[in-house]
Amino acid sequence: MIENLVIVESPAKAKTIEKFLGKDFRVISSFGHIRDLAKKNLGIDVENDFSPVYEIPKEKIKVVNELRKAASEAKIIWIASDEDREGEAIAWHLAGVLKLNPDTPRRIVFHEITKDAISNAIENPRKINMDLVNSQQARRILDRLVGFEISPVLWKKVQPSLSAGRVQSVAVRLIVEREREIISFKPESSYRVTSVFRIDEKDTESSIIRAEASKRFPHGDEAVKFLELCSSAQYTVGSITVKPGTRSPAPPFTTSTLQQEAYRKLGFSVAQTMTVAQKLYEAGKITYMRTDSTNLSKLALAKSREVIIAEYGEKYAKTRQFVTKSKGAQEAHEAIRPAYPDNLSVQGTQNEKKLYELIWKRTIASQMADAIVEKTTIIINMNNSSVTFNATGEIVKFDGFLKVYSESSDLDNHDEEKDLLPPLKTDMPLYYNIVSAVQKFTTPLPRYTEASLVKKLEELGIGRPSTYAPTISTIQHRGYVSKEDRPGEKRQITLYTLDKGKITSAVKNEVAGKEKSKLFPQDIGMIVNDFLIENFPEIVDYNFTAEVEEQFDEIALGKLKWTGMLHKFYGPFHKTIESTLEKKNRKTGVRVLGNHPETGEPVTVRMGRFGPVAQLGNSDDGGKPRFASLTRDQLIETITLEEALRLFILPRSLGILEEAEIVVGKGKFGPYIRYQNKFFSLKKGVDDPYSLTLERAVEIIREKNENEKKKVIKEFDDILLLNGRYGPYLSSNKKNYRIPRGTDLNKLTKEDCISIIEKSEKKTK
DNA sequence: CAGTGAGCGAGCTTCCGCTTGACTT
Prior knowledge:
Layout: E1 2-8, H1 11-20, E2 25-29, E3 36-37, E4 44-45, E5 51-52, E6 54-55, H2 61-72, E7 74-79, H3 85-97, H4 115-123, H5 130-157, H6 168-184, E8 189-198, E9 208-213, H7 220-232, E10 235-247, H8 255-266, H9 270-282, H10 298-312, H11 350-366, E11 371-382, E12 389-398, E13 429-441, H12 450-459, H13 468-477, E14 481-486, E15 489-499, E16 502-512, E17 515-521, H14 523-535, H15 544-556, H16 562-583, E18 591-595, E19 602-608, E20 611-616, E21 626-629, H17 641-647, E22 652-657, E23 660-667, E24 670-675, E25 678-681, H18 694-711, E26 712-716, E27 719-724, E28 727-732, E29 735-738, H19 750-764
Parallel strand pairs: 1-2, 1-7
Antiparallel strand pairs: 3-6, 4-5, 8-9, 8-13, 9-12, 10-11, 10-13, 11-12, 13-15, 14-17, 15-16, 18-19, 19-20, 20-21, 22-23, 23-24, 24-25, 26-27, 27-28, 28-29
The protein binds one DNA strand of 25 nucleotides through β3, α3, α5, β23 and β24.
């Protein structure tokens, strides 16, 4: 029999806490929630005041049995789940499952993991707060109602296995709407004029100043006219303004800001960041990684200060406490920080080291002094134009926190190059070295990355630290959005240069719209999004979560009854479900593109059984329509008639070789030639399936067949020793086997091969 | 691996938020 049993949510936390408590205490973990709404059906008795049907999920039975056993062996049980809505619900479920007397105060909370904080908590236990529990039940039940009533409507009206939810559907909406803004965006161009000035009339190498004209010119001829003025102008320094300023460090990491910075600085995906952080947490190297708080414990503040003074000196230290500003934050944890700030680095994988270093720098920087900067703005006048040239320069007078860390931005602003300016005086003459007018196009808002989507969701108060990564994987999994690269398109820009009184023009290529790891909506995502906006506008409204959260807060304060809140929501909601099921037609996103220019057959695109499909002709008048899948980068919404018609060109027959047909087509894995039931891939950028000739096809087939012959090194009945991309390997019964290192291929016998295959088969079993 | 788009119907899919492994490549 042990005196005290403390139950927390996380096993890593249990381990840490146990160290602080004496031998009278045993600390174990519930691994999060232990009960949930029944997996099958709705799990809610709607008719009976939304009475929930809770069950212990299969994968939790083992933990619960261990908890029960530990509970039976302890005299006093303390429930120390997190101090927020979900934590209170976990406590309540634990009390229920472990059959604890609800009137005995057994609920404790820690704000910090220190001996004092823990013993203080145990001296001040309380009862479970049922208002808080009820607000969690309302949250849980509302999410189940939304998800489990709308999803089946999608199965009937759009496609099977689709899903909708309070969080995921808004995430998809953001991406779809951003894409539509980009689709309808019309880039406009103007000429941006920049100049390099010098201070000496003769010496072109003398101190130089880069400046930009205060005006942009919409057309080339206007830019040229201005350059002509520049050619004959006399320049003087009009004004010099020096403004002192400061810059402050960003707050310590929350889950969301960690995901953003790890993406920007380290190129990690959101899921990758969480996996690496979990490892660091389990090893006791950082604090908990799922948090919305920017708060640092007193201990962390003091330790960081010590480290800063030791590493950089007293004047670099400035203790700060940041206020958490994100909507709906529940602040059950600290910010993400090094568990021991005096550990400047850690052992582990490269990624663990990099992420730790990032967390360390951000935490330490947050406790450092402001940087002091001096920003100088110079205005250069022309004697023959009211247009001025402006130059800015920034000098860091004191680096402060910048010594350690500066936050990255989502917008890649290379424009703001901050040069050091030479010493200047008002009215001083200046001379141009070169003036150039470059055509610049406006760009639409950028597509979301995983990390910038998380940032947006957090701003809207939608989702929680524990769900950002899973939500992003769900919407990709359902096929609503996809993370992709795009090569962009070349476009031409004109530039004019004034050099030694002469104006020349040139045309250059630039690539516009190049994308890397961005979230693109897929057709099914757009169709589902439009269906939801049409039928359930209030659910996918950006403010829906914020509005229900307000009500959950009122329930938590005991001002609102949770069942009443649900009744008010569910009444109209369920009516909409029923009327949508009854009245609305199937939604396929069909678009009529026009008619085939020769045959007059109608061309349509829509979502088919196997994805987006173009259809040529229809079956009404006995005709047999032709179908063709859209390519990955085409959308039902934007495909043109010409593009759709092109889809029907392939597969096409090139001719006959030795009594067999050669067909060229485009498949899942790129363009191919099919001949005698064998496939030959076309090389990207070399051969084009639309213009491929019979001669070239025959060449490709010959080449590949010859390579195939070279591939076979040895042959033992049904076992082949082949030369592959990664070296020699064995092939038998359509399965491949690796050859152990150091094997002499010349001496390899059939028996050796059989033994290699048998060993490999055993391993996989 | 490189396709599919006739129609019927049984049985399944699905939410968000708390926590980690148990899986496979």
